Amino acid sequence: MNLLILSKCSIDAVSLLQLHQTDKHTPLYKPIFILSGVLFLIVIINLAIYWLYDNALPIIPYISALVLLLWPGKSLQRRERVRFTRMLKRVFSINIFAPVFFSDIILADMLTSFSNVLGDLFIASCVMLVGHDSSYFMDNTHNLYYRDYMIPLLIRQVTSLPYLIRLKQCIAEYIESKEKRHIFNALKYTSSIPVVVFSAVQRKAAIYVAESGTVPQHWYLKEDTIFRFWILFVFINSMYSFWWDISMDWNLLSITFDTPQIDESVHHKTVQLPPKKHTTPIVHFRRQLYFSQPIWYIIAIFFDFLLRITWSLKLSSHIYIRKLDGSIFLMELLEVFRRWIWVIFRMESEWVKKVYNSLPSGSFDNLRMGLLDRKPSSSSGLLSPIEEEDP
């Protein structure tokens, strides 16, 4: 859907993502729609089977999607499937000296929205391998090894994996460009890890309190202290991520401070007045908006703020809204909607920077051209496509 909207808005997503388009008469979104339709059909069929037969394996949809992705035949949009597989290889590579492409950044950011889906996939894999339902691992009081140690530890690692991938990409970008903003971006993804960790600790603390009335003394932290730490890290992660979205990813807002006033005397000499003791921060809204109605940007900022807070709570496994039927699905659906909005305005921001970068110097105002994710290789302001072999 993102590709369709960007295409209708005349934003060249193919060039931004550095992809080769062999058939210029076929938009990129058409083969993606075909693959999405097939995957949706697989999910619906497996969901119906799971509802009819409770003992059906919940991991079957994941296996079916993997089989579709790795299908060796030339049918079912092989070029797009191979391209996506190569992107996954680059994203999951541990080589911090490899180049990071803009399409890889978009994919890795999308994976962070599916962090809890990866945790669910891990539980589904355990169900398939052991042959018990999920309560055997999560709620069984006679299975303390799995419930208190093995499963919480592994779920934390699996859930944190997308954020570690983005952290690796930020480090790789800093090594390549030496720009400090990549370090601050890395801190944003690092700030999500304490949320996951303290959430798991609080869940375990709740189990101890329910069974013995208190947490172990060697923890050195009481249950209410753990909760306060969790609230603190949720707030830091939510606000940091929200500000980064609108200020850096979307490039909509920037803050400057009062500069010393400049006055010109009758002798045409520049006189610098003493600086003020208290400088006032000034918030600037980007003037170069590709979409004609500014209200869309305001709505996007509002939804991003609201859903950022919601998703930070979703990272917390100790919140038992997951026991309410449909609540976990609703929150993941809202996060998909937020990510859908984020991708549109992330691409819009990059497209505006590319367009204005091709104009003569001084043709743009208050647009941070130094924040290009990749330097253009030509005067057109566009990036060179990723080298691809024929599938």
UniProtKB/TrEMBL annotation:
Keywords: Membrane, Transmembrane, Transmembrane helix. Its main location: membrane. The chain crosses the membrane at residues 32-53, 59-76, 88-108, 226-244, 295-313. Residues 146-381 form the EXS domain. The keyword S-adenosyl-L-methionine does not apply. It is a multi-pass membrane protein. Pfam families: EXS. The lineage of its organism: Eukaryota, Fungi, Fungi incertae sedis, Mucoromycota, Mucoromycotina. InterPro entries: EXS_C. GO terms for cellular component: cytoplasm; membrane. It is found in: Membrane. This is EXS-domain-containing protein.
